[in-house]
Amino acid sequence: MTYSPKRAMAELRHSISMGARGTSSPMKRDEDSSPLISDTQPVDDDDGRGRHPYKDRDRPFFSHFQSICPSIGDDANSSRISLVVVIVVSLLGLVSILAIVKRVNAPYLCKKDGITLHCPHVKEAPSLWENPYSATTSWKPCAERRLGGFSDLPPENETTGYIFIHAEGGLNQQRIAICNAVAVAKIMNATLILPVLKQDQIWKDQTKFEDIFDVDHFIDYLKDDVRIVRDIPEWFTDKTELFSSIRRTVKNIPKYAPAQFYIDNVLPRIKEKKIMALKPFVDRLGYDNVPQEINRLRCRVNYHALKFLPEIEQMADLLASRMRNRTGSSNPYMALHLRFEKGMVGLSFCDFVGTREEKALMAKYREKEWPRRYKNGTHLWQLALQKRKEGRCPLEPGEVAVILRAMGYPKETQIYVASGQVYGGHNRMAPLRNMFPNLVTKEELATKQELDNFRKHVTSLAALDFLVCLKSDVFVMTHGGNFAKLIIGARRYMGHRLKSIKPDKGLMSKSFGDPYLGWATFAEDVVVTHETRTGLPEETFPNYDLWENPLTPCMCKA
């Protein structure tokens, strides 16, 4: 985590909170205005007394000059002299103010598209809906296909051989696997057989590549980079062998392997067997241990070559349009990726608000699903506290609501929710809905008939959520995962203008646990802490995640 002075100050404030504010009763702390408290409470006006402590607020304007020059009024001569002095000083002050205003509004020279222009001094006001323009103009995407280039790829029968991969997991994990497969094929100068989307054991989804992505565009866009074929060659007759035979499978690929590993260990087997399957193939290619051109190719696949089918794109455009017109006129909207499904809550091994019965049922669920981690359960309470302190627990819907209100988003904000079945149902969602009643899902935006065409493939429904979040004015994640990091990375690649909020869960856990922290102080901490956590340009670092931050390899200085 990079050092942030503002975050450090917020943490320091929390570290002294119990000492500084603990000496007074929580009931007597700063009586700040909070969205959690009804704004209809009686106010002691006291007839206006005490709100204007300055007794001379109604004094005539000339009397202020007497306070500046007490000699006024002593005698006629001195009075006239003093008055002249005051008038001269006032005129000089007025001239100075006009000069400053003129200088502030005066144009200065700047360059745009190589042309020198007169540009006004304009300081952007903070916006809830977009990042400052001045902070988003230094980088531009540059991973697109090179126009006018030529292909130096050998014919299909002259490559080193064929590689075949199973893209496992959900839609976004599959997307990353496809990008990595193209990169590995390039490293070894091999022909890539169109990846198979492996059936997901949780969703029981049997989507094929062509059911979700535009195959023609995928192959054509990458024709100068990698040789890609739709199916296993006809001369290879025993296709089942490629799925099951260990002789045709490379299984020992370590996670985040360097490019050299493939050249030294995988390429010889491909040359020998001509066709090899690589599995498992989740995160089997590193980031900073491969050539930058390979990382740029992965971005080219992710942001340009992998396009959803036209009908998916059109439905997502329709949903986004409905979100922008829910108030009867054009309005911005926020997309919230709420990760609080039962499986996510269980896997996190974090503790959440709930009844004793709820907690007992969750303990049984964890013991059944993850027995090795659960053991006898005695160590889990300390583990849960540590994980929450480190910011590794999913945010609850109520916590998300409080953070968004602290940032300044009003009750009327239109929010698109991308989520599975929230653990705890309506009761768990109630705080979020109470503070932001304009929450909708794709099921509420679209008719049953409109979504029926996509229900046969669960991946298609996930693609709709992905695109509506991608097109939103503000995207908010609540926990990690491939979905969120791919959205944030794509929005960064599109120019950093779109806000992508990544809550600082570690600092927020300290705030939520501080009984002496008033609303105004909490809101200030939230705003200050998240000024730089909105998808702004951020330098990459060793072992960085290319999918969340494509800056260095895939973007160029503007």
Q: What attributes characterize this protein structure?
A:
6-stranded parallel sheet, Rossmann fold, alpha/beta, 15 strands, 5-stranded parallel sheet
Helix content: 40-55%
Poorly predicted spans: 18-32, 38-74, 100-122
Secondary structural class: alpha/beta
> Would you report the number of β strands?
15
Assign an overall shape: globular
Q: Report the sheet with the most strands, covering strand number, pairing sense and barrel closure.
A: 6 strands, parallel
Tally of alpha and pi helices: 24
Fraction of residues in β-strands: 5-15%
Distance between the amino and carboxyl termini: 26 Å
Gyration radius (Cα, Å) is: 31 Å
Q: Overall mean pLDDT score? A: 81
Region (Disordered): 13-58
Pfam family, one: O-FucT
Subcellular location: Membrane
Family: Belongs to the glycosyltransferase GT106 family.
Question: Could you describe the 3D structure shown?
Answer:
Pfam families: O-FucT. Keywords: Carbohydrate metabolism, Fucose metabolism, Glycoprotein, Glycosyltransferase, Membrane, Transferase, Transmembrane, Transmembrane helix. One of its GO terms (molecular function) is glycosyltransferase activity. The chain crosses the membrane at residues 81-101. It is a single-pass membrane protein. With 558 residues, this protein is α/β, with parallel strands linked by helices. Among the domains are: 156-305, Rossmann fold (3-Layer(aba) Sandwich), CATH 3.40.50; 310-353 and 379-557. It is 45% helix and 9% strand. The protein has 24 helices and 15 strands. It has helices spanning 5-15, 17-20, 61-68, 76-105, 171-188, 209-212, 215-221, 239-244, 259-273, 292-305, 310-324, 342-348, 356-369, 371-374, 380-389, 397-407, 425-435, 442-445, 448-455, 458-470, 482-493, 505-512, 519-529, 551-554; strands at 108-112, 115-119, 139-141, 162-167, 191-193, 196-197, 228-229, 249-250, 275-278, 334-337, 415-418, 439-440, 474-477, 499-501, 555-557. Strands 4, 5, 6, 7, 8 and 9 form a 6-stranded parallel β-sheet that branches. The radius of gyration is 31 Å and the shape is globular.
